[in-house]
Amino acid sequence: MKAALPVIWSVLALGVSVPLGAQQPQQAAAVKSPHGTLAQACAVCHSAAGWTPAHISSSFDHAKLGFPLAGAHASVACKSCHTNLVFKGAPHDCVSCHQDPHHGELGNSCARCHSMRSFVDRSAMTRAHQLTTFPLTGAHVTADCESCHTPTSAGQMTFTLRTTGCNDCHQKDYQATKNPDHAAGGFPTDCTQCHATVSWLTARFDHNATAFPLTGAHVAVACAQCHGDGVYKGKPTACVSCHQLDYNNTNSPNHQQAQFPTDCTVCHTTATWNGANFDHNTTQFPLTGAHIQVTCAQCHGDGVYKGKPTTCVSCHQTDYNGATNPNHTQAQFPTDCTVCHTTVTWTGATFNHSNTAFPLTGAHLTATCAQCHGDGVYKGKPTTCVSCHQTDYNGATNPNHTQAQFPTDCSVCHTTTTWTGATFDHSTTAFPLTGAHLTVACNQCHGDGVYKGKPTTCVSCHQTDYNTTTDPNHQQAQFSTDCASCHTTTVWTTAKYTNHDTQFFPIYSGTHAGRWTSCSTCHINPSDYSQFDCLSCHSASQTTPKHSGVKNYTYDSPSCYRCHPQGHS
Fold first, then answer.
1. Under DSSP, is residue 532 helix (H, G, I), strand (E, B) or coil?
2. In which region does residue 138 sit, left (phi positive, over 0), alpha (psi from -120 to 50) or beta (all else)?
3. Which of the listed residues 104, 131, 164 is the one where a domain comes to its end?
4. Of 503, 510, 508, which is closest to residue 567 (Cα–Cα)?
5. Domain shared by 71 and 101, yes or no
6. Rounded distance, CA 347 to CA 370, Å?
């Protein structure tokens, strides 16, 4: 009977009905379900063939109970999570089944790093690591977690407080590396300056991040060529710190003897050691013209570089001494070749006469040097006109310069533009020319050949005019020979004795202005202008009545002039 109980319980549990008329089994006592209030039918897990072992029907969907079985959970035995037969109320959190090896350091959410596929699924852990301050790259992706997160003595693994410095994991690598010796070389403990996470080997240092960026041939140089002494930190960057032997052994030119600077960059570049090029323009003697193409030895063949004289004659003394057209030595030319020569070409020298006390102008500009310096005299050459033009002075006949005692300063009459058409500035003499005198030819006054000491009185030129003038007759009237008393240089005719009003009697002003037509109106005696007549204009019948009561009144011209010197009549 006891053996049949499970079968009977199974039948009852499955709700099997017994047909009427059949033999009724004996009423069994009710058995309580070990699963508590389980809503699932027994047939989902059990069968009539045998109560145990239970077989879960494929129709059972664990997800409907709030916890989908995925990944490794799908193959786990029910008792692994349901430790007793009461299924309802089983906890869903990870720690209820999985002991936390992190001891709460990372919280209770295992899904942040683990997946249901496998508890040690690295892909989920790696993805989680990318959200931290130290994303995994290169070889770090495949590294074992414990190689960085080493367990502590208390059993915990360091995650949240783990530092990210390279030396935290690679300190032993740093200390053990001897090629080069990192510790002795004072290398930084930040491995990323040379190493990458892809491979620990094939380290590469970015020299451009230092105070000495690598360029040219320096880029391909092995580290040991400069750092063979094991010095990295504080390594001198001066050229000579690596190239001292090159400097000492160079003989073309000899750097030591020439006292060249030890800064190789003055002549060399990092592209190539050979083909050094010195920039002479950085010195006190920049190269120009033909000097640019000159080889160093042409000037520095004596081995002197530092303190080399920069005067022209220091290189061109032979050229100076050998010059014969003109003879530089004889002429005492300056040894500064730049006075006449340029660096473009040695021939075709030109001297700038404007820098001397005798600047060239006009026709002098086109004169050849030999025309003035044919005697070989340059230094101290006289600058007076006659020093070159004595023959011209002596041969001049129109006018005769020698006879006239003209000054030997040709510039008084001539210009450098042209020798002919000389003009003399009479305004520089004691007799400036004005009016009609300006257009008079020289020989009209100087036809006698007299220039120096020529009289400047009017009559010296106008004696004939004075003698032949009849209206009035100047000689008979004994007029002054100073023509300027009545005439002007503007025009000879229409003479006017302007001093008549101030010296004698006002005829150009007062009541007599405009009352006469010529001198003879008053001066009736042409041979004696000291005599004058008032009575021909002022009759006695008009004049006498006006003078009644005037004491000693007489009707004659001298009496009129005595009382009326100002012309008030």
1. coil
2. left
3. 164
4. 510
5. no
6. 17
Is 153 part of any domain?
yes
CA–CA separation, 441 and 443 (whole Å): 6
* Whole-number pLDDT of residue 28: 58
Tokens 């389980």 map to which residue?
38
- 425/438 Cα distance (integer angstroms): 10
Q: How far is residue 194 from each of residues 201, 229, 282, 428, measured CA to CA in Å?
A: 10, 20, 40, 95
Q: Are residues 99 and 144 in the same domain?
A: yes
Contact predicate 555/500, CB 8 Å? no
Residues 126 and 153 in one domain: yes
pLDDT at position 37 is: 84
Residue type, 195: H
> What confidence score (pLDDT) does residue 337 get?
95
Q: For residue 351, what pLDDT is reported?
A: 92
Distance CA 340, CA 279 (A): 27
DSSP-H helix ranges across 279-404 = 296-300, 313-322, 328-331, 369-373, 386-395
Residues 6 or more apart whose Cβ sits within 8 Å of residue 75: none
Q: Using alpha carbons only, what angle is made at residue 259 by residues 256 and 265, rounded to the nearest 5 degrees? A: 90
Residue with tokens 């053996």: 3
Tokens of 386: 């006659």
Q: Which two tokens stand for residue 281?
A: 């323009």
Closest CA to 243 of 258, 265, 215, 259: 265
CA distances from 164 to 137, 160, 167, 191 (A): 13, 11, 9, 12
pTM listed for this prediction: 0.48
Q: Based on the fold, state whether residues 12 and 49 are members of the same structural domain.
A: yes
Same domain, 70 and 121: no
CB atoms within 10 A of CB 110: 19
301, HSE (Cβ side, Cα atoms, 13 Å): 7
pLDDT of residue 29: 66
Q: Residue 322 has what pLDDT?
A: 95
Q: Which domain holds residue 547?
A: 497-569
Distances (CA, A) of 67 to 94, 121, 504: 11, 20, 155
Residue 43 domain flag: yes
Structurally, the chain folds into a number of domains equal to: 3
Mean pLDDT by 10 residues, the chain (569 residues): 34 37 55 82 88 85 89 88 86 85 82 83 86 92 88 77 90 92 90 91 89 94 90 92 95 92 94 91 94 93 92 95 93 94 91 93 93 92 95 93 93 92 91 94 91 93 93 88 92 86 88 88 87 92 91 91 67
> Is residue 366 domain-resident?
no
